Amino acid sequence: MRERRSTRKAETFAGQLLLAHPGLRDANFRRTVILLSVHNADGAMGVVLNRPLDRQLGELNAEFALGPLAGVPVYCGGPVEPEQLIIVSWQWIEPENAFQLHFGIEPEKAAELIGSPGVTLRAFLGYSGWSKGQLENELKHATWLVTVVAGTELVRLDTVPLWRSILVRVDPELKLLAEEPEDPTVN
Predict the structure, then answer these.
(1) What is the pLDDT of residue 6?
(2) For residue 162, what pLDDT is reported?
(3) Helix (H, G, I), strand (E, B), or coil: what is residue 53?
């Protein structure tokens, strides 16, 4: 059963996930999972969840080195403004089956969240953005699949396995393409 979502104009995908279609070859977005924070008539914005930079905030900026945010992992959020730092937290709230997202939070607020049960905290350099109508056009051309966040999947997996896991949940028929090697010539 497919979980593909429609792209009616009144619908917003803020707080949901964009999954790169396996056929998307753009190096910026190949095999990515993007968490959308904004989607409205003016455009869309989000961050790539599965491109860790193998660095922590304390290594990135001396301001964070000795503070509570020193150990927060840093990810490549996307190709737009790659020097801009965005701090994001989320939490899956089991009893309500709900996903709570805080996007672009101040470091002081992020420090308060350290150690809170079930809260994931990440930093992103840059973001992914679409101008008015651009994302809708890409959705019409099946560049992306849209889905809701389900449970703790954003905490359990990282990198390409996160993309594969969610993609197969959304559309099991794409499993074969999701398993394709990075370089198909070595198949």
Answers:
(1) 41
(2) 86
(3) strand
Fold of the CATH domain 17-178: VC0467-like (3.40.1740)
Q: What is the pLDDT of residue 152?
A: 73
- Which pLDDT belongs to residue 157? 67
Q: What ranges do the domains of the chain cover?
A: 17-178
Q: Residue ranges of the alpha helices (H) in the chain? A: 57-60, 62-65, 107-113, 134-140, 153-156, 159-170, 175-178
Nearest by Cα to 34 from 50, 21, 22, 23: 50
Long-range contacts of 38-44 (CB under 8 A, 24+ apart): 38/14, 39/12, 39/13, 39/14, 39/135, 40/12, 40/14, 41/132, 42/132, 43/129, 43/130, 43/131, 43/132, 43/133, 43/134, 43/135, 44/13, 44/129, 44/130, 44/134, 44/135
Placement of tokens 């990282």 in the chain? 158
> What is the amino acid identity at position 183?
D
Are the CB atoms for 116 and 103 separated by under 8 Å? no
Q: How many other C-beta atoms can be found within 10 angstroms of the C-beta atom of residue 111?
A: 17
What is the reported pTM?
A: 0.86
pLDDT of 183 = 60
